[in-house]
Design brief:
Elements (H helix, E strand, L loop, with lengths): L21 H19 L4 H6 L1 H13 L5 H20 L5 H31 L4
Helix pairs in contact: 1-3, 1-5, 3-4, 4-5
Length: 129
């Protein structure tokens, strides 16, 4: 009697590069913008009033899913700077989580912009674009 053969197939899933995950990173930026809007609801009235224009831009970014646009990144930079300044001088516990969400959104958006700029430059160097 012959013993039956046993074969095992092991598939190893290799993590994709950032460029292969471009859409995922972009979607993460948009989700982080929505998360930041949710975090902004915990701000005290005085802080929310002082940041009303920047928070309105944040809501617009989340609603329009425009976190990858250049002007959105500029608005996010402004909001992050203002939140950082307030975090250094105020004790509001809501500022830290909001700042973290804004930075997460900004970092993902900047990564997408970097990857696309690199792709354009490489294409230009290769005579493609």
């Amino acid at each position: 009697m012959i013993a039956p053969s046993r074969h095992q197939l092991v598939l190893e899933q290799k993590a994709g590069t950032d460029f292969e995950r471009l859409e995922d990173i972009g979607a993460s930026a948009i989700a982080a913008a929505r998360h930041a809007v949710a975090r902004s609801q915990a701000l005290d009235g005085e802080t929310a009033y002082a940041l009303r224009r920047e928070l309105a831009e944040l809501r617009k970014i989340a609603e329009e899913r425009s976190a990858l646009a250049k002007n959105a990144r500029e608005n996010l930079h402004d909001l992050a700077r203002l939140l950082k300044d307030r975090a250094d001088t105020e004790t509001s516990p809501a500022i830290g989580p909001l700042l973290e969400a804004v930075i997460e959104c900004l970092a993902a958006s900047e990564r997408v912009a970097d990857l696309l700029a690199a792709e354009r430059h490489i294409g230009f160097c290769r005579g493609i674009a």
